[in-house]
Amino acid sequence: MKASVPLLLLALLAGPTLAQEVEAPPPADEVPAPSETAEPAEPGSTENLGPRAPADYAFGAFQRGYFLTALEFALPRAEKGDAAAQTLIAEIYAKGLGVAQNDERAAGWYQLASNNGDHLATFALALFYQDGIGVPKNRARAAELFRKAAEAGYAPAKYNMALLHVEGVYASPSLTDAASLMKEAADAELPEAQYDYGTMLIEGAGLTPDPAEGARYIGLAAEQGLVAAQVDYATLLYLGQGLEKNVEDAALWYQRAAEAGSAVAQNRYAKLLAVGEGVDLDLETAAMWRSLSRRQGLSDPSLDRLLVSIPPESLARAEERARFWPSEPPTQAAEADVELPATTPQVAEPNVLPAPTDAGEAPPNAVVEPPPPPENP
User: Fold this and answer.
1) How many Å apart are CA 69 and CA 58, to the nearest integer?
2) Distance from C-alpha of 177 to C-alpha of 165, rounded to nearest angstrom
3) Is pLDDT at 333 greater than 80 in this prediction?
4) CA 134 to CA 146: how far, in whole Å?
5) In this structure, are residues 183 and 213 in contact, taking their beta carbons and an 8 Å threshold?
6) Are 175 and 208 in contact, with CB atoms under 8 Å apart?
7) C-beta separation of 2 from 193 below 8 A
8) Measured between alpha carbons, how far is 111 from 83 in angstroms, rounded to an integer?
9) Amino acid 337: pLDDT
10) Which of 196, 172, 174, 173 is nearest to 184 (CA)?
11) Which of 51, 57, 80, 366 has the least CB density, counted as fewest CB within 10 Å?
12) Pick from 343, 320, 319, 346: which is nearest to 331 by CA?
């Protein structure tokens, strides 16, 4: 289980997070009757859409990479207590976007935004306290902030609170509470939570075991690209645990995780290639994946025994492919780029030699032409 989830910046100022000044609607008895309203707008007009919210120039500039311009637009709003603008400024300083990175200043802005009710800032500040970034490390304070953001409905905060309940130090030790919070975060489509909740379902940690439902949640996390979930989902498919056994699909998931850099997946995919299980037998490619997993410190004598019969030239090519992976080796890439000129295939003619004076002196594979008939005088 991971200890934290990175702040999702793209949702930072979207929708209701923006602090906009909206006038209160008039009392119901003061709303004019339909006959007293202005004439209907003509088709294609935008008047029927009602008043528009003011454009958010700070966030617009931020999205386009104009970070100093975003800071310039956000500062006046932040000084007036706009929590969304304060969070935006904190993010700029935390990531060093257009300015020198300054964790202390970022923490200060996150604190202001959190005080003004921005749960995204509260979560980011919790991560700062958890890791000691810009503030003294204080896991108890981090737990308080995680709880505050979780109560506001923020899924990553719920996930972190679930982990704290599992740990049982800065939150009450309760697998039941952990499972409940983990499910809420998983149903909000957080891949880390989907993976961990699926594991809890399979193991029966804090809830009734349900291997099929656990496999489903792990599959959801795998579909979102969580590499650890892809490896476990492939294993569930291979073993037929919680779902129907399917070695071909297992091989595809191992390959996907192997290409993402998982040493475990590289090792297991190499084994399948070495014996042709779920995939076509390919000793050279199996040796390439073995080399890549070894590079990450994973050695496997059982895989070595499967590849003991690989020809030396194939092993050399495998090592070269691993050295340049994920690119093709220069020699192979050059060969792939060379286009041979189109030629008309020539039919090989027999080796015809002129008739020698002595036919017995002709090469054994030669076709000896008989001498031409004498011409008529």
Assistant:
1) 7
2) 7
3) no
4) 17
5) no
6) no
7) no
8) 10
9) 56
10) 196
11) 51
12) 320
